[in-house]
Amino acid sequence: MNGSGVVDVAIAGAGIIGLSLGLELRRRGLSVVVIDRQQAMSSASWAAGGMLAVHDPQNPAELLPLSVRSWDLYPEYLERVEALSGKKVPLRTRRAMQCVAPDRATGVRYGETVTAAEAAEFAPGLDAGDNIFEWLDEGSLDPNDVREALPVAFVTAGGTLLEETELLGVESVTDGVLVQTTRKLVSAGMFVNCCGAWAGEGERGLGGLPVVPVKGQMANLRLAPERLRCVVRAPGIYLVPRGDGRVTIGATIEHVGFDETVQEPSIRRMAAAALSLLPEAEAPPLMDMWAGLRPGTPDGLPILGKATKECCWHATGHYRDGILLAPVTAHVMAQAMMGERPDVGLEAFAASRF
Prior knowledge:
By secondary structure, the protein is an alpha/beta fold. It has helices at about 15-25, 45, 65-85, 115-120, 145-155, 265-275, 320-335, and strands spanning about 5-10, 30-35, 90-95, 95-100, 130-135, 140, 160, 165-175, 175-180, 185-195, 210-220, 230-235, 235-240, 245-250, 290-295, 305, 310-315. It has two domains: about 5-80 and about 145-210 and about 300-354, FAD/NAD(P)-binding domain; about 95-135 and about 210-295, D-Amino Acid Oxidase, subunit A, domain 2 (D-Amino Acid Oxidase, Chain A, domain 2, 2-Layer Sandwich), CATH 3.30.9. It contains seven helices and 17 strands. Helix 3 (about 65-85) packs across helix 5 (about 145-155) and helix 3 (about 65-85) crosses helix 7. The radius of gyration is 20 Å and the shape is elongated.
């Protein structure tokens, strides 16, 4: 961005969606500024579990083509982030054990049943009880790795990052938009709303979106490193090993507005559920505990595509799958913005469905 504040694309929101889109647009040669009211990667992007839950049975069926394409794009995406940032963002796991609901035990299955020998190899000490688990081909990463690397990658690629900068308004003008911020007026060819949980209330004239914050509280248990070697998901609880003695557990689903306070009783109940599955793990007296705000929509699907205002776009509402969907969101949004046919159709994700 030059001194006069002229840029090809202005993006509001420096979470994993906004920065990944910015990185992809830079790869295509566009000048990009990403604006955030806080520090980059300071909200849902770092607070997430980090599961790349392609086949999570709780996901809406319409999400599957987007999820599968994103999983395909992930190796190249991580390779580019690492090369630009000089920081490692490894996949911490490459398999997931998903508890099968009783009504699915004899129905359609995503993967093979986990045998007792496999459970002993990948999750020794797991108390499955009467539960049936199946294998899912999906990975996980530590969001803190992405938090450290992605902003550096974007800036190294030539992007401009304006942190602690409030978006005040967006006005369509001839051949572009004027983006008013607390720091400067930015003239851009296009504007993209990637504001996550704040996308509905903080659009400043883009037109209302039904995006609401959905609070999730999480914590870390302790376990011998490498003892748990896959993600484990059961009703009401999941366990994500980080490979260094931390096992992240989550997460509550709370519709309490923008409240990000951590409530230890909720965390302890969640820990009890996790320990019933993995009794050898430890919930220390002083546990790492935190909360984040997911951007939820009425149908659980993201909002991707054109806004009603000229030269404006939406890429938000990813709910629990922002980290999973970051590569494909960047890919298909860049395609749509450049007038190309997206690899995955965006009709089901259009803002006009509301």
